[in-house]
Amino acid sequence: MAGEAQTPFPSQAQVNSVPLRRYGGVLPRPYREGRGFSLSEIKALNLTEREARLLGIYVDTRRKTTHEENIKALREYLINLKKALESGAPLPEPRLPKIFLAKRDVSRVFKGKTSAGRRGRGLQSVKYRYTHHYKWKKKQRERLLKKRHEASRHKGGD
Hints:
The protein is built from five helices and two strands. By secondary structure, the chain is mainly alpha-helical.
């Protein structure tokens, strides 16, 4: 295994720094590391987004800027990758977009009364469902139908 070639890693994309007020509008450094290469930088090398991801390149679809340094770094990475693959290195890990699945917790009672809170938790379409107003109505209905233990006790039951 000592003679087996290693797959090279792509370098980080360089993006412009944001001039912050605490630095008096002066950039602390001209560039910072970005989340990935922009689509225009990838298209400059005649690659599609999917091909770049399959070659192990991080793609930031939100970026619109094009930097020559990033194009040079990508070109150098592709040359090194081609040499490594010819010498028997394995293919790099694909950098496909991550998919996050989040389920709502329906057992929780209060999920935010403000419209922003309900929107953030996915409750905008069901209005007041799963909020405390809904819970009070539901409990009162169950007391009247004598479905809960509270109906047989001192909380409104006979």
